[in-house]
Design a protein that fits this description.
The complex is a heterodimer of chains A (477) and B (133).
Chain A (H helix, E strand, L loop, with lengths): L6 E4 L2 E3 L11 E4 L2 H6 L2 H11 L4 E15 L1 E9 L6 E3 L10 E10 H4 L3 H11 L14 H17 L5 H5 L17 H7 L12 E10 L2 H7 L5 E8 L2 H21 L11 E3 L3 H35 L5 E8 L1 E10 L2 E10 L2 E2 L18 E4 L7 E6 L3 H5 L2 E2 L9 H7 L2 H10 L3 E4 L2 H6 L8 H10 L3 E14 L1
Chain B lengths: L1 E3 L5 E7 L2 H16 L9 E8 L3 H19 L1 E11 L2 E10 L12 E2 L5 E5 L2 E9 L1
Antiparallel strand pairs in B: 1-2, 2-8, 3-5, 4-5, 6-8, 7-8
Classes of the chains: A alpha+beta (477), B alpha+beta (133).
Chain lengths: 477, 133
């Protein structure tokens, strides 16, 4: 990104200066000079377009891991007021609705698992359906799927996938309110028929990790984390159902915007007023997909437990937290002196409520919400904690990962999947995948430096570091 | 068929003598991300229809319907056909059921409106957009 058109507010915050005769655009870009320089100019163009959408409240922001998306930048956050003509955008949520991370903490240490890490990786690979075309064992009728779309992770626990204690540590207590399964097309439901309890491919993964660094001992203790502890992170979303909802409503909202006279700088910003019929229909469908994602990760967490117990019979896996990073949520925030109900789009950004937030589980009330950040399969990941000041800076949002440093086709030219898997194996990171192409596209070198992203996130006052983890085994689609 | 660069996702391009031929070529590019289409058998056949007056939205709809129909029928697709009568589009595709002998690539979630264009070029028609993976 060319920084000449930006004004630096401090070491970690940037904005677009206004011309003398123009109102300044409400935009904040978070990140260091180095991180912003690696971003495509399209990020700036896209967040500028977002800032022009009707009903925006406060600033449209980009996180330190931002990159070029479709309509909204990935790593983009924007809040809209329904009472001021605010919009809902399918591009501001993404195709993989409610994609996110479930993190499980175990009672195992690196020393205990190291001798059996290869059998564990193999067992996880056998147990977790991953990759293009892979279906799960669970096949649901349309009526059963409607129950999933209303029930979320609570439905999954009621069906025997996991334990009631999990629900306490899933955002929205495992069940998003306001879902409207009737707004979901029959085709979307058909696509999901065999996809419950599947991981998918691309940047989705199930990773066995070890805590190797503790930054905040007090928060780590509250999160139940300790050095050398084994964790499991599951990154996936609402699968085919969410993809189809994204597809269906992208066209619907594009036509609605044209019909309602909303001037879109780019067609890809397809949106409709929150209070319009099309907006309400999309919100109901999108929230249904959120429940699908929460149920999917709940099932995968249960499959993970079973795989662990077959290798380590005394293993105990508890849910640390489950949070999505492709969402639009109705939340109450302070804006312009008042507390208002706003629709906060987080496209590739993680909700990060600070200490004392009333929706947090009691266990995390004093520390702030666990914020789960996936790095790459060769470097590391982080657990952060929400900060109170993130509320005013970015509607309580933080980054979601490292962010890509190069395109998939560039990565394919640079790495060969089979060699990469062998090289990671030599480094003590076991990759289990059916797709060497996918492995090459996801090469650690194709991602930005997650350490730099997370440090910028902390210094910008969005979330603070609690622990760092290193990967030991990874199932990729 | 071909590809263009995008930070996180992949751009697909199809060229042909008609818009329909360009759309078919782009479908070949898109499914080429998910599987080696040349290694597949075209033993199963699906057909579908859709209505769309806007040429660019028809292109995105075509790609997304293919993704949905492939998933709905559990197929890896390798050959495509498309005809148009006014705003009515008649699509068909051939492929084989997914099984463990097929080496998977990367799943495409959906075709987007990003970098979307369908235009007459010097040598025919070109259709392109970014697909989300």
């Amino acid at each position: 990104m060319n920084l000449n058109s930006l004004k630096q507010l401090d070491e970690y915050r940037w904005t677009i200066p206004s011309a003398a005769d123009q109102k300044p655009l409400p935009i904040t870009l978070f990140g260091t000079r180095e991180l912003l320089e690696t971003m495509d100019d399209k990020v700036l163009e896209q967040i500028r377009n977002v800032a022009l959408l009707p009903g925006l409240v406060g600033n449209a922001t980009t996180m330190p891991d931002a990159h070029w998306g479709y309509g909204f930048p990935i790593g983009g956050v924007a809040a809209f007021d329904p009472k001021q003509g605010g919009i809902i955008s399918a591009g501001g949520v993404g195709f993989d609705i409610s994609c996110g991370i479930r993190c499980l903490r175990t009672n195992l240490t690196l020393d205990q698992t190291a001798p059996k890490i290869a059998p564990l990786a193999d067992e996880l690979f056998r147990t977790i359906p991953a990759g293009v075309g892979k279906e799960g064992k669970l096949k649901l009728s349309p009526a059963q799927l409607d129950d999933v779309l209303e029930g979320g992770a609570v439905w999954a626990v009621d069906q025997g996938y996991g334990v009631k204690e999990d629900i306490e540590y899933v955002e929205e207590h495992g069940q998003v309110k306001g879902a409207e399964p009737k707004n979901v097309s029959a085709l979307a439901k058909e696509r999901q028929r065999g996809e419950m309890g599947t991981l998918g491919s691309g940047n989705h993964y199930l990773e066995v990790q070890v805590v190797d660094r503790i930054y905040d001992a007090e928060a780590a203790a509250a999160f139940g984390l300790f050095e050398n502890q084994v964790l499991v992170s599951i990154h996936c979303g609402s699968r085919g159902l969410g993809h189809q909802i994204g597809t269906d409503y992208l066209i619907t909202l594009a036509k609605a915007a044209a019909r309602l006279g909303i001037r879109l700088p780019e067609r890809e910003l397809a949106c409709a007023p929150i209070e319009s019929p099309e907006g309400q229909q999309y919100i109901g469908a999108m929230l249904a997909a959120s429940n699908c994602a929460l149920a999917n990760r709940q099932i995968l967490a249960d499959l993970t437990r079973m795989a662990f117990e077959r290798v380590f019979p005394a293993a105990n896996l508890e849910t640390l937290f489950d949070v999505s990073h492709n969402t639009c949520k109705a939340e109450r925030h302070r804006a312009d002196g008042d507390e208002r109900l706003l629709f906060v789009h987080r496209k590739g950004a993680t909700r990060a409520f600070g200490p004392g937030h009333p929706t947090l589980p009691e266990r995390y009330r004093a520390t702030g919400q666990p914020v789960l950040i996936g790095g790459s399969m060769g470097t590391g990941s982080y657990v952060l904690a929400g900060l109170a000041e993130a509320e005013s800076r970015a509607f309580a949002s933080a980054c979601h990962g490292a962010g890509r440093a190069m395109s998939r086709s560039q990565a394919l030219k640079k790495w060969r999947g089979e060699q990469l898997v062998k090289e990671l194996d030599r480094q003590g990171i076991l990759i289990r995948t059916r797709s060497y192409r996918g492995a090459a596209e996801e090469a650690p070198g194709a991602y930005k430096d997650v350490d730099a992203v997370v440090e910028a996130t902390e210094k910008a006052g969005l979330a603070r570091r609690v622990v760092h983890t290193v990967p030991k085994a990874c199932v990729k689609g | 068929m071909g590809y263009f660069e995008h930070d996180a996702d992949i751009g697909v391009i199809g060229c042909g003598a008609t818009p329909e031929a360009a759309f078919v070529a782009a479908a070949e590019a898109m499914f080429g991300i998910m599987v080696n289409t040349r290694a597949l058998r075209d033993e199963r056949h699906i057909v579908f229809e859709f209505d769309e007056t806007d040429l660019e939205l028809a292109f995105v709809t075509w790609l997304n319907r293919l993704l949905a129909e492939a998933r709905r029928h559990g197929l890896a697709l390798c050959r495509f056909g498309l005809r148009r009568g006014g705003s009515r589009w008649l699509g068909e595709a051939w492929g084989q059921a997914w099984d463990d002998t097929i080496v998977p690539g990367t799943e495409v979630k959906g075709a987007t409106l990003t970098m979307l264009s369908v235009r007459a070029a010097a040598s025919g028609w070109e259709a392109r957009c970014v697909v989300d993976v």
